[in-house]
Each structure stands twice: as structure tokens, then as C-alpha cells.
């Protein structure tokens, strides 16, 4: 039975949606404002979008952020998937519980503690090796892979538990090597979890500021750090334009993913109905 929302629930839902999306709506409106005022709307204009693509520092920061997010999320997904498989195959006991506890620490640990500790580690290793200016892309890459790993593992583990453990063994009995059996049999069944972990790792890396602030160097600046440096004076309206573009791109991707997933569910339902 479909239960209709009562008036109180409707008002509550409307307030929640308003609270969540009104700031984004205002951001989009101001990105098309003809002036840099945040209180006066002066015509419709693409001025700030033009200014955005003229700002080399912002475009470079966006490029750096995308490169870092893509590479670190792919690395974290590969390592996290292999780690999840290894942990899953371990026998239940103190060792497995301890490893899972250690894996969850980066999620529970305050980001400022993680950022400062990783900065000290990189500087310490750099001093031992006699390297100057050690902070840069690679320190950011290692840090982002580190804090993304637990999220990948937690997305892959439930899919491994849902997979029939006898499938890989049956594939090996039919002549597949362990690696080929994993790629041909296990991987397709855990692929939704792997993709979810990849998307989560990319989002976390793209959005991260606190850890990146401590482990980044002067030669490699990410977009969150770039925007933070602008807040000391005033955030220019071209940042509204950039935020609007990012919001629309993410919204379109989410819609496409949901459409493709729903089509896949329909196809599976049809196949299941035909098989009965």
C-alpha cells in the first residue's frame, strides 16, 4: 500500500529540500549576475564564465585537481579491491578483526591529525634522503590514496560476501588460472562495489582540503586550496561559475548512472522472467 504524506511531513520535507538546495540555487543565480554584487541582480550575463576561462591560475588548479583525483582514485580502487579480496579470504579471528580495525582508522581519525602526521612523515623522509621541496604532487597522491582506501574496501567487501565462493573454484576446476578465474567470474559480480568505491574515492579526492593543505607544495595547487587562498580577500564571481559547472556535470552524471542502472535492472528482470 502507498502511504500518502501528511501535511506536516510535506512541510518538513519541503524545509529540508529548501535548506539543502537554496544555497546552490543562489550560487547558480549569482553566476549569471551582471555585476559582482551578492545582493543586487543586474541582468543576465555570461561574463563570469568568460572570466573563469581567462583565469589561468584557476584553470591550472582545476586541471591539477582532476589529474590528482583520477590517478589517486584509480590507484586506491586497484589496491583497495585487492586488499578487500585478501581480507575476505582470511579466516575469522583476531588477525582479520585487527586488520579491519586498522583499515577503518583513517575514516575515524580527524583529517587535521592525518594531514599533520603525513606532512611530518614526508618531511622526515625528505630530510633523511636529503631532498628539498619534497611536498608536491607525489605527497598529495600518496595521501589521497591512503585516505581513500578504506572507502573502497568497505564498498567491495559486501559484494564479495554476496558472491558465491564456489564460482571461482568451479572456474579453476574447468581450467582457469586463479587470476583468470577472478577476472572472469568474481570481478563481474563485485563490479558495482568496485565502481562505487571508485566514484567515492574520486569524490573524496576532488573535494579534500584539510589533508591537501598540509601535504601540498607551492608548485602544485589544488582547486580547494586555490579557493581558500581567495577567501582572505573575496571570492570572485568566476568561482560561482565554476561551482555551477561542476554541479551541473555531477547532476548529469548521476542521472545517466541512474538511467543506465534502471535499464540494467529491467533487462535482468526480463531475463529472469523468461527463464522461469
Rg, please? 24 Å
Structural class: mainly alpha
Span between N and C termini?
27 Å
Oligomeric form of this entry? single chain
| Strand elements, count | 0
SS element count, helices = 11
Instruction: Please give the largest β-sheet.
Output: none
Percent of residues in β-strands: under 5%
Order of helices and strands: HHHHHHHHHHH
Helical content (DSSP H or I, runs of 4+): over 70%
Mean pLDDT: 83
Shape: globular
Return residue spans where pLDDT drops below 50 for at least 5 consecutive residues. Answer: none
Characterise this structure.
- Helices cover 79% and strands 0% of the residues.
- It contains eleven helices and no strands.
- The protein has helices spanning 7-31, 47-54, 56-89, 94-108, 111-129, 137-162, 166-173, 178-207, 210-215, 223-230, 238-275.
- The radius of gyration is 24 Å and the shape is globular.
- 21% of the residues are buried.
Kindly list the characteristics that best describe this protein:
276 residues; mainly alpha; 11 helices; 0% strand
